[in-house]
Write a structure and sequence with these properties.
4-stranded parallel sheet; binds 1,3-dihydroxyacetonephosphate; 15 helices; binds iron/sulfur cluster; single chain; alpha/beta
């Protein structure tokens, strides 16, 4: 299947993007592998005719918004992110009425509809930097309460209003589970994604986005790490650090939606070009504003 994918990519001038949480096989055939921010930048700069996005729907959708003239395909269009929808209808308007200078900051893990109502997008790797540089004091951070809380702790001068969304995968990691691994490997450093609950962050040695955790593990002189995020990152961690050891809590955190990006589905979508992301023009125009603002802010 690897050879078939290579041929199809060449024949169709297609590029494959994969998130670190996609299955190892998808990461192996991808031209670019990274976290949400890196992949959004790659999607924006791509010169391919077809982008195959091995991630979840909001990622493919963002790639399409940034490249409306390109064909954006997903190996399985049903791969979704429950957090992307976790904002109550009407609440953004309510908050805008309540605060004159409100900035609505939207984690990229969100639907295009939510992006259309937002001022700027962020990812977990640039959220603190972008919110810090906003002139607004009052910030409504959607949808993730945990990333929002983490940002607000870093920026005590801002009034960050939290929304009650969460990632079911990261939020299911408990402090008890982390301590159980720590009891076996007392010297291991705990690396956590800011989508984790505050109790887990409170026992962490380092907090960062997926790419930041990978960079931290590579740069560290330590040899053992407890990794509090989705288990797909193990592939990259082991490639980068064959001499180091990585442990996950039990049960191993797994985003089943990300795992729908199988080789079979990649071959099929490259052959048939059938699972395309379609978004109407008005929505693209509106959702592009906060996404482009994020990319500009971070340049
Ligand atoms: P990052 O890619 O920003 O680390 O986000 C993690 C995530 O949950 C993606 O779905
Ligand atoms: Fe969504 Fe969590 Fe899966 Fe990321 S890991 S796609 S935030 S459910």
């Amino acid at each position: 299947m690897y050879e078939q994918i290579r041929k199809l990519k060449k024949q169709k001038n297609a590029v494959i993007l994969a998130h670190y949480y996609a299955p190892k096989e998808a990461q192996m055939v991808a031209d670019f592998v990274g976290d949400s921010f890196y992949l959004a930048k790659v999607a924006k700069e791509s010169s391919a005719d077809i982008i195959v996005f091995c991630g979840v729907y909001f990622m493919g959708e963002s790639a399409k918004i940034l490249n409306p003239d390109k064909k954006v395909l997903m190996p399985d269009l049903s791969a979704g992110c429950p957090m992307a929808h976790m904002v109550a209808p009407g609440i953004i308007d309510e908050m805008r009425k309540k605060y004159d200078d409100l900035a609505v900051v939207c984690y990229i893990n969100s639907t295009a509809e939510l992006k259309c109502q937002s001022d700027v997008c962020v990812t977990s790797s640039n959220a603190v930097r972008i919110v810090k540089n906003l002139p607004n004091k009052n910030i409504f951070f959607i949808p993730d309460r945990n990333l929002g809380r983490y940002v607000s702790e870093q920026l005590p001068d801002k009034n960050i209003i939290l929304n009650d969304g969460f990632c079911p995968i990261h939020a299911s990691i408990t402090q008890k589970q982390v301590e159980a691994v720590k009891s076996k490997y007392a010297n291991a450093l705990v690396l956590s994604h800011p989508e984790c609950e505050p109790e887990v962050l409170s026992v962490s040695d380092y907090i960062g986005s997926t790419a930041e955790m990978i960079a931290y593990a590579k740069a560290s002189y330590e040899k053992q790490f407890i990794v509090c995020t989705e288990n797909g990152v193990e592939y990259k961690l082991i490639i980068d650090n064959p001499q180091k050891e990585f442990y996950f809590v039990s049960p191993s955190p797994c985003c089943n939606d990300m795992k729908l990006n199988t080789l079979e589905n990649i071959v099929s979508v490259l052959e048939k070009e059938d699972k395309t992301i379609e978004i109407d023009k008005d929505k693209i125009a509106k959702a592009l504003i906060p996404l482009e603002r994020m990319l500009e802010c971070d340049n």
